[in-house]
């Protein structure tokens, strides 16, 4: 099972003075999908909520180190970004995050609302796919159709990879290990991930193994849709693979995200979209509608069971459906959607 790859390392290995993060309570957009809903409406309510142990949407505590057991690359030490320090009183923090008379906002609270301080299951789906595509066929065995399909979908050997909303940047680390020619991990300039977690994960899992691997990975702040900064202008059309894992919870950012994808994608390049349904299906479906309007076509799309596998180890898949009648919240969480995007006409 995918989630069994993770286990927490002893607490002495990470700071103990980091305040606990509230469990995200995402409003299910299928139940209330007002088109003008603000991001604060999605993340404003942190009500008590327990994710099922067998189908978590996120993993780890802020600042915690997790052991990711990779059959291909061995054990990886993944540091979860630290939670931005702020008042212990959530109501005061929300108020502080609202726009002030001069138009400024509390940057600590803005960083918290990015939810980079967890390792999301969608990132693990990308990491597992890339890893399996890089796993050689055992001597004497014949590549199955499923293995061939997986290799065609997820292989990054020789590819230039851009990860958007990287957080802990597990996909970036795995892509470097899988011989991508270049990897860039990006997150919002306010993201706590840029304060050391990504750099730590590159150092512990790449530099200590092979310094050359670490030199292939760069870390860049990037705000979706802002394309006139030095990083954007220097890298237009550079990346042959773009990773977007659980980046779709803010409707207001869908167009900006699509513009960023169009800007950085090289001719013939592909975009991996992986999303859980903790915000509901409607908001994920809305993103697909947006990218199609911005010049993309969906080359491949399906839903994957995050818990169970077939007897031969293959994935359990089903057709992607924007609206699945009668689907309950608990069952919804065990599935994710995986899509491969390309530019129209390519």
TrEMBL record:
This entry carries the following GO cellular component terms, namely: cytoplasm
> Polar residues bias: where?
14-32
Q: Which GO terms describe its molecular function?
A: S-adenosylmethionine-dependent methyltransferase activity
| Pfam families noted in UniProt | Methyltransf_16
Stretches for region Disordered: 1-41
UniProt cross-references to InterPro entries, sorted A to Z: Methyltransf_16 (IPR019410), SAM-dependent_MTases_sf (IPR029063)
Q: Which residues form the signal peptide?
A: none
Residue spans of biased composition, Basic residues class: 1-10
Q: What is this protein called?
A: Nicotinamide N-methyltransferase
User: What is the organism of origin for this protein?
Assistant: Penicillium concentricum
């Amino acid at each position: 099972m995918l989630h069994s790859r993770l286990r927490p390392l002893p607490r002495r290995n990470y700071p103990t003075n980091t305040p606990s993060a509230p469990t995200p309570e995402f409003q299910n957009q299928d139940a209330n999908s007002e088109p003008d809903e603000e991001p604060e409406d999605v993340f404003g309510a942190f009500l008590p909520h327990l994710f099922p142990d067998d189908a978590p949407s996120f993993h780890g505590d802020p600042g915690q180190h997790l052991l990711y057991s990779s059959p291909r690359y061995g054990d990886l030490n993944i540091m979860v970004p630290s939670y931005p320090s702020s008042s212990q009183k959530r109501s005061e923090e929300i108020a502080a995050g609202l726009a002030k008379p001069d138009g400024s906002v509390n940057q600590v609270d803005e960083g918290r609302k990015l939810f980079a301080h967890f390792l999301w299951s969608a990132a693990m789906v990308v990491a597992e796919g890339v890893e399996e595509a890089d796993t050689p066929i055992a001597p004497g065995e014949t590549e199955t159709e499923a293995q061939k399909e997986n290799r065609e979908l997820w292989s990054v050997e020789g590819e230039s990879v851009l990860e958007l909303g990287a957080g802990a940047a597990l996909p970036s680390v795995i892509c470097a290990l899988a011989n991508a020619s270049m990897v860039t991990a990006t997150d919002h300039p306010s993201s706590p991930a840029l304060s050391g977690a990504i750099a730590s994960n590159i150092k512990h899992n790449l530099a200590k193994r092979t310094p050359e691997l670490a030199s292939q990975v760069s870390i860049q702040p990037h705000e979706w849709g802002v394309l006139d900064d030095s990083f954007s202008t220097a890298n237009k059309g550079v990346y042959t693979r773009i990773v977007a894992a659980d980046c779709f919870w803010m409707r207001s950012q869908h167009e900006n995200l699509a513009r960023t994808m169009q800007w950085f994608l090289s001719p013939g390049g592909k975009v991996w979209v992986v999303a859980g349904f903790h915000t509901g299906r409607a908001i994920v479906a809305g993103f697909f509608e947006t990218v199609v309007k911005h010049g993309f076509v969906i080359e491949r799309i399906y839903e994957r069971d995050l818990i169970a596998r077939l007897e031969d180890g293959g994935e359990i898949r089903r057709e992607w459906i924007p609206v699945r009648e009668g689907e309950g919240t608990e069952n919804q969480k065990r599935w994710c959607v995986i899509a491969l995007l390309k530019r129209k006409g390519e």
